[in-house]
C-alpha cells in the first residue's frame, strides 16, 4: 500500500474513533498527565474546568514513518517555559469547538494553515495541573512539503518532529510515581534527539502522545500507564472559555 493510501486509510479509521470511556450522564472522565504543584488549587466538588485544545498533527516521512509535530516553548513564557509541547492553547470566545481552538492556536504558534490538514478525531480530554480540560485533536498533514513553519517567537522557540511510535515503546523512557487529588499516577519522561538538539518530552504532552499513539496504532504501550480518573461535569457555554 502506497503512502497516500496508508494515510487515507488512517483518516477513514480514525474518523470512526470513539473515546475509551463515555459517561452516561454526559460528564468527562479525564486523566491528569502532570502532578499538581504544592500550590495548586484543590478540585472543588462539581467544578467545571475551562477548555483548551492541542493539535496532534501527523505526517509521513520519506520512510513512510508516522511523525508528530512538536514545539519547544519560549523560555520567556510565564508558564511551562522551555518545555516541549504540542501546538495549542486556551479556547477563545469565538471558537466553535475544540477542533477550531487547536487549529487556530497551531496557526498562531507555528503558521500551520488549517487548509493543509484533515482533522480526523478528538481524543479523551485530559486535566492539566492548572485545572484546564485539554482536548487532543488529531489531524493528518498529507503533504509535509507544503508546510513551512513560521514560528511565533513570543511563544515558540523551536519546531521539530518525532516518530509517533516511540510513545508506545519503553526505550528512552523513564517514569516517576506521583499523587494528585488522592490518586496515584505515573509521569512519563521521553528523551529524544533531533540533529544536535536534545529534547525532554514529559507530563501532559507525553501522556497525550501515548494515548494518540495507542489510538493510531491500535495497541497499548509496552509499559504501564497508571493514570487517575477524575470525573468532571460537562462545561457550559458560560464557563468553557478562558480570559
From TrEMBL:
Stored PROSITE patterns: NUDIX
Biological process according to GO: acyl-CoA metabolic process; coenzyme A biosynthetic process; coenzyme A catabolic process
Keyword Manganese carried by entry: yes
Domain Nudix hydrolase: 49-205
Alphabetical UniProt keywords: Hydrolase, Magnesium, Manganese, Metal-binding
GO CC field: cytoplasm
Protein name (record): Nudix hydrolase 15, mitochondrial-like isoform X3
Domain of life: Eukaryota
GO MF, any single term: metal ion binding
UniProt xrefs under SUPFAM superfamilies: Nudix
Pfam families, alphabetized: NUDIX (PF00293)
Entry cofactors: Mn(2+); Mg(2+)
Region (Disordered): 1-48
Amino acid at each position: 500500500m502506497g503512502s497516500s493510501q496508508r494515510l487515507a486509510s488512517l483518516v477513514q479509521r480514525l474518523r470512526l474513533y470513539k473515546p475509551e470511556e463515555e459517561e452516561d450522564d454526559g460528564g468527562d472522565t479525564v486523566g491528569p498527565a502532570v502532578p499538581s504543584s504544592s500550590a495548586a488549587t484543590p478540585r472543588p466538588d462539581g467544578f467545571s474546568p475551562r477548555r483548551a485544545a492541542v493539535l496532534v498533527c501527523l505526517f509521513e516521512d520519506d520512510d513512510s514513518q508516522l511523525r508528530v509535530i512538536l514545539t519547544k516553548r519560549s523560555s520567556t513564557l510565564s508558564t511551562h517555559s522551555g518545555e516541549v509541547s504540542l501546538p495549542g492553547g486556551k479556547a477563545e470566545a469565538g471558537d466553535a469547538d475544540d477542533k477550531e481552538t487547536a487549529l487556530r492556536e497551531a496557526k498562531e504558534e507555528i503558521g500551520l494553515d488549517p487548509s493543509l490538514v484533515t482533522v480526523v478525531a478528538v481524543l479523551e480530554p485530559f486535566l492539566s495541573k492548572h485545572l484546564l480540560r485539554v482536548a487532543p485533536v488529531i489531524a493528518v498533514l498529507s503533504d509535509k512539503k507544503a508546510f513551512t513553519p513560521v514560528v511565533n517567537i513570543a511563544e515558540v522557540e523551536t519546531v521539530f518532529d518525532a516518530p509517533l511510535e516511540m510513545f508506545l515503546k519503553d526505550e528512552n523512557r523513564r517514569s516517576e510515581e506521583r499523587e494528585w487529588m488522592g490518586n496515584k499516577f505515573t509521569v512519563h519522561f521521553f528523551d529524544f534527539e533531533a540533529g544536535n538538539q536534545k529534547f525532554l518530552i514529559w507530563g501532559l504532552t507525553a501522556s497525550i502522545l501515548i494515548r494518540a499513539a495507542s489510538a493510531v496504532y491500535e495497541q497499548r504501550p509496552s509499559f504501564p500507564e497508571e493514570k487517575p480518573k477524575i470525573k468532571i461535569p460537562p462545561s457550559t457555554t458560560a464557563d468553557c472559555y478562558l480570559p
